[in-house]
Prior knowledge:
Strand content: 25-35%
Pfam family, one: Ribonuc_L-PSP
Radius of gyration: 14 Å
Amino acid sequence: MTSDAVRRVQSGVPWEEAFGFARAVAAGDRVLVAGTTSFRGDVLYGEGDPYEQAKVAFTSAIEAIGEFGLGVESVIRTRMYLSHARDMDDVGRAHKELFDSVRPAATLLVVEGFIDPRVLVSVELEAFRG
């Protein structure tokens, strides 16, 4: 695959520049969205609320695939990382509201924590642009 076949977009969160990564990368028929939290710029939305954090994070991830002309109907895989198992139902409810009509393959994991301890949820998604 040539470098012309790969396109990257940034969202502007500080960690993209600090760590050297893109919010989303399109390669071939796939668009991959990196771990996305409810930060928009330097502001954390939904502090203390896993449902709200999941909604904001997934909305940001969906906006990232929008840069490639895709929408929620193109999502084929999601991953949800939670810092607390107790938040599973809230995050699952947010996922269902956004993806129920699409039914992507989904994985939910509990992790030890995130860079910022206020973050309760991080999400990833993969879209198909065939």
